[in-house]
Write a structure and sequence with these properties.
Blueprint: H1 9-15, H2 21-40, E1 45-46, E2 55-60, E3 68-72, E4 81-89, E5 99-107, E6 111-117, E7 130-132, E8 138-142, E9 145-155, E10 171-181, E11 190-197, E12 210-214, E13 222-228, E14 232-237, E15 246-247, E16 251-253, E17 265-272, E18 278-287, E19 294-297, E20 299-300, E21 307-312, E22 320-329, E23 334-337, E24 344-347, H3 354-382
Parallel strand pairs: 1-13, 2-13, 3-14
Antiparallel strand pairs: 2-4, 4-10, 5-9, 5-11, 5-12, 6-10, 7-9, 8-9, 11-14, 12-13, 15-17, 16-17, 17-21, 18-19, 18-22, 20-21, 22-23, 22-24
Length: 383
């Protein structure tokens, strides 16, 4: 089979070669990135020469904050679209990242991708270099298995050196993808597929999922760092139970008007479900207008059947904290108590400094002493 690409010299190269389509798909992206890299730096890269530890990517459902996608077919019919987010985590290896490539697989009889994009708040948002991506991901089918390969790289003229990339601390967004549902199960049944990263495609001799870091070595200026990820699970079910869990208003300790600096806050709620029962309860919080939520698992309180608790960490003086409660039942129904979109809020209040406390005590004691002298003086006059 001959494949023609519209990427300059790559078009000529691939027309003359007979290759399996899947290998062409992976090689095509590599060819494009290699063309870019040869323009920006010396186009040699490898995985030797450094002590490399595996980097970690998380495939996230933005609605649940985890790697599970549960869809009730009665609410999500065929052609319904959902979004998947891909984050890279700081593992000590991706301290100077200048590029990445991901190869993803799934069962195409269940779902298929519709679009991929890099949002403004991506991992390279603070870089002064231009981010280069292929105009479209490379897509390939092998039976019922679909493969998608896509990537991005910083365009660094004159050669990438250590320090030119971005430092990833904690978690940073790589890209987002939309998928649509292609199949609906019968009532009482379910279908599923995994969204899995592919380290190396069959018959491939190169990593297909990795991040790139500069080495400072002119003979091998770039290193590929391997990447791992737990597969995301997509389950589409058709069940009669479509009633979400019921979540009470939270009880907060200390109360919202009395949270001191760096004091942990315990939040307690009651969660019940009339169907198969509660599966999990999470507390979502953010501080000072943050966009992304931080998610805490709420644990059952011993000796109770429906009470859950979580602890929000303490923050500095004047920090505003906003939170909501999310619960799923065992049928995938999602319940939210967000105070009717107003959320639950509190502000960390300052404690009186010790000097102010002493001053207030002095003022109070002085006032009492003055009052006592005045009363004695008035008694002396009357006598």
């Amino acid at each position: 089979m001959s494949i023609t690409l519209n990427y300059g010299y790559g078009s000529i190269f691939l027309r003359r070669m007979k290759m399996p389509k899947r290998i062409v798909a992976a090689a095509s992206l590599m060819l494009l990135l290699a063309t870019i890299m040869s323009f920006a730096f010396n186009s040699h890269y490898g995985t030797a020469g450094l002590e490399l530890k595996e980097a970690t990517i998380r495939i996230i459902n933005p609605l649940s904050g985890d790697r599970h996608f549960y869809f009730n077919a009665s609410e999500h019919p065929i052609n319904s679209v959902f979004t998947v987010e891909f984050y890279i985590e700081d593992t000590g290896t991706n301290e100077d990242m200048i590029g990445w490539q991901i190869t993803l697989s799934w069962n195409i009889t269940v779902i298929n991708y519709t679009s991929v994009w890099i949002p403004p708040d991506n991992v390279f948002k603070d870089s002064s270099y231009e981010v280069i991506t292929p105009p479209n991901p490379f897509f390939e089918l092998e039976g019922d298995t679909a493969y998608l390969t896509w990537g991005a790289i910083l365009l660094i003229m004159g050669g990438a050196q250590p320090g030119d990339g971005v430092d990833v601390h904690g978690e940073a967004l790589l890209f987002k993808a939309n998928f649509k549902i292609l199949q609906q199960p019968s009532e009482g049944e379910y279908i599923q597929t995994n969204l899995a990263l592919i380290d190396m495609l069959p018959n491939s001799h190169s990593l297909d999922t990795y991040i790139l870091t500069p080495t400072g070595n002119s003979e091998q200026p770039l290193e590929k760092v391997p990447v791992s990820a737990e597969p995301a699970q997509v389950i589409i079910y058709y069940l009669i139970d479509v009633i979400p869990p019921e979540i009470s208003d939270p009880v907060q300790d200390p109360p919202p008007d009395n949270v001191k600096p760096f004091q942990n806050v315990t939040v307690t709620v009651n969660v019940t479900d009339i169907g198969e029962g509660v599966k999990n309860v999470t507390l979502w919080y953010r501080k000072n207008g943050e966009v992304r939520w931080h998610i805490l698992n709420m644990t059952p309180v011993p000796s109770t059947s429906s009470t859950y608790q979580a602890e929000i960490p303490g923050f500095e003086n004047c920090t505003w904290v906003t939170y909501k409660i999310v619960a799923y039942d065992k049928n995938g129904n999602r319940g939210v108590n967000d105070n009717e979109k107003a959320y639950f809020k509190y502000q960390v209040i300052p404690e009186f400094p010790s000097t102010i406390t002493v001053l207030l005590l002095l003022i109070a004691s002085t006032s009492l002493a003055t009052l006592a002298r005045k009363e004695r003086f008035q008694r002396d006059i009357r006598q």
